[in-house]
């Protein structure tokens, strides 16, 4: 496994791989690996001849006052874990390599990037689509792997790829959870013991929604209300939103039919967490 820090080097690797007619897979990450990341890496490893994992804590997707500076980083641990999964290249550029001081090029998927998480984080998805576009241009993957954990991000990336006639196949893989159901996230590290216990309420609220729907409830407002009450009853939790939407286009679904994505964002103490489930009635 080779660590690559510069654009010049990664371009050389890509040129060679393409010349050899090999398929290339990319797993974009911000590092501090957990089983969620590793599930993407394993799937990509099975699919592709050459596997590049990028590790880049992307400043443009963090808002003012967010956790860019404190975001957990541990390259030597990530490196060991990646090596065990037979990753070929880790691309770890410096911020200055990706963003020159006069940097001005941004990609935005309008509309979708301002709803749900985008309401409180207005520039977040613009940062995500910009860095993913840059990584796709540099690495030219045949397939790129994302987690359903960030369901809105996955929809936005698919839309960018489709609207801008981009090449990579986008594969979205299931959420990997802790034993109590909490979705794995690098940010779970911020939680105190007490907060960590409270955080389980997010998945419990999603399961509650699933039960209500299984019991015949089809009114999304009523399901949202039950979830909201449950989350608000947890004293360390502050709900940001509950959304019941079409998983393809994130349109609000007042009535639950066919298939819905139920997504939540909440703060547990100071830590903002997101989670979701898809409920399929078909
Ligand atoms: P991050 O490093 O948090 O930006 O995540 C990198 C990729 O891993 C994204 O596509 C995430 O959606 C995915 N991911 C993060 N957490 C999980 C999880 N618990 N299960 C599955 N995929 C995940």
Biggest sheet descriptor: 6 strands, parallel
Poorly predicted regions: none
Question: Whole-number average pLDDT?
Answer: 98
**CATH class membership of the largest domain:** Alpha Beta
Q: What is the CATH topology of the largest domain?
A: Rossmann fold
Shape designation: globular
CATH architecture of the largest domain: 3-Layer(aba) Sandwich
| Each distinct ligand | adenosine monophosphate
What would you give as the CATH superfamily of the largest domain? HUPs
Treating each run of at least 4 consecutive H or I residues as one helix, how many helices?
A: 10
- Share of residues in helices: 25-40%
The strand line-up of the biggest sheet is: 1-4-3-2-5-6
Radius of gyration: 19 Å
SSE ordering: EHEHEHEHHHEHEHHHEEE
What is the number of strand segments?
Answer: 9
Keywords:
single chain, 282 residues, Rossmann fold, 2 domains, 3-stranded antiparallel beta sheet, 38% helix, binds adenosine monophosphate
Offer a concise description of the structure.
The protein is an alpha/beta fold and 282 residues long.
